[in-house]
Amino acid sequence: MLKINNLHVKLEEEDKRILNGLTLDIPAGQVHAIMGPNGSGKSTLSYVLSGRDGYIVTEGGATLQGQDLLQMDPEQRAAAGLFLAFQYPIEIPGVGNMTFLRTAVNAQRKARGEDEMSSGEFLKAVRQKAKELQIDADMLKRPVNVGFSGGEKKRNEILQMAMLEPRMCIMDETDSGLDVDAMRLVADGVNALRAPDRSFLVITHYQRLLNHIQPDVVHILSNGRIVKSGGPELALQVEDEGYGDLLSEAG
């Protein structure tokens, strides 16, 4: 699904390297988690994959379902099936959730050469998805994220994900600022979207999220590269012992 090979990235405005030969392979249907200390390059990875400005790839590459991801504009990456859930979802005053969702869905369908959804088809689909994800229908009537709590913003992104039906979902510290109940609701939404043809990359500081979203593989990122990979028990080891011993082992 997603293949990253020897990826080297630096900041555009200063000669500072962030990623230093990161290699990662996420097969279809799997959930991979990335953990690591502050400054290790976790969020930079999500930004580079989604096409955010300000970063220069100096070596290596990334493909999504065999397509060269880094040669695409951000909207092309989205149409190809990439979705990024932000750490801090932005508010869009004056734009209703329903309008935003339908515009996004039809823009992607058009880019893929598919017929756009009619108002009736969209309304039926979004109501069904909201019901499955236990999202209050009143959220659909409000402007995008305006006045939403942290948990509501994250759940709104889960609804966006459900409607857009991406193939590769990147969750950038989606547990940031959430209480236990909100985190569980978000995790339940992610678990409801797990499928054989959809993969997830969950970027997190804390093992607690991985109690609810059981990953297939956990990776430890340090100094811009993956230094250790393992099963869910690796996240428990980090929770108990911190990163010190793991990073010492990796040299």
Automatic annotation (TrEMBL):
Keyword terms of this UniProt record: ATP-binding, Nucleotide-binding
Q: Does the keyword section mention Signal? A: no
InterPro entries named in the record: ABC_transporter-like_ATP-bd (IPR003439), ABC_transporter-like_CS (IPR017871), FeS-cluster_ATPase_SufC (IPR010230), P-loop_NTPase (IPR027417)
The answer to whether UniProt assigns keyword Transmembrane helix to this entry is no
Superkingdom per UniProt: Bacteria
**Domain (ABC transporter) ranges:** 2-248
Gene3D superfamilies attached to this UniProt entry: P-loop containing nucleotide triphosphate hydrolases
Q: Supply the Pfam families for this chain.
A: ABC_tran
Q: PROSITE patterns of this UniProt entry?
A: ABC_TRANSPORTER_1, ABC_TRANSPORTER_2
Q: Which family does it belong to?
A: Belongs to the ABC transporter superfamily. Ycf16 family.
Which protein, by its recorded name, is this? Fe-S cluster assembly ATPase SufC
**Taxonomic classification, please?**
Bacteria, Pseudomonadati, Pseudomonadota, Alphaproteobacteria, Rhodobacterales
